[in-house]
Write a structure and sequence with these properties.
A hairpin with a 6-residue loop joins strand 3 and strand 4. The chain folds into two domains: about 70 residues; about 45 residues. The chain has about 160 residues and is mainly α. The protein has a two-stranded antiparallel sheet. Strands 3-4 form a two-stranded antiparallel ribbon. It has six helices and four strands. It is about 50% helix and about 10% strand. Helix 3 runs parallel beside helix 5 and helix 4 packs antiparallel against helix 5.
Length: about 160
């Protein structure tokens, strides 16, 4: 008698295959659908959390903590806690652009430091913040693509 002869019978009679999940009727099909949906929701929330926290901070400890928080506390408890723990701003935003425009600040083209619009040079690296238009000879911030006075392109 072969030792492995009973293995095929056990595997063929198992009811945990994916086919049996979709072939069941009534309440069990609804329960299976909800179960599959919750698994999908958990996977999607973990992936979204990972992408979101990586775009917000370089702190590896906070990244790992945030992903583990959502992974182990389920999306229903972990995501609200993650929203409390996560940094408010993205890495690319040194200061929110609305606040920067309200404060009349411009980015230095060299070091990306925010400077008041009326300054001629960057307060960090000394780079010129304004250029002179080649058509109307008026000064305007270096970050503008066109002269705000005459509309000439900012080509150097």
């Amino acid at each position: 008698m072969d030792i492995w002869s009973g293995v095929g019978v056990v595997l063929n009679n198992s009811s945990s295959t994916l086919d049996s999940i979709f072939q069941s009727n009534g309440l069990w099909s609804f329960v299976n659908f909800v179960f599959i949906f919750l698994i999908f929701l958990r996977i999607v929330s973990i992936i979204w959390t990972a992408k979101d926290i990586i775009s917000r901070t370089n702190n590896t400890g906070l990244q790992v903590l945030s992903i583990l928080l959502v992974t182990f506390l389920t999306p229903f408890f972990g995501l609200p806690l993650y929203f409390i723990v996560r940094p408010v701003y993205f890495k690319r935003d040194l200061i929110p652009w609305r606040e920067a425009s309200a404060l009349s600040l411009v980015n230095c083209s060299n070091c990306r430091t925010l400077n008041p619009k009326e300054y001629e040079c960057c307060i960090t690296c000394g780079e010129k913040l304004k250029i002179v238009c080649k058509q109307c000879n008026k000064e305007y911030p270096h970050m503008y693509a066109y002269c705000p006075i005459c509309g000439a392109p900012n080509i150097e």
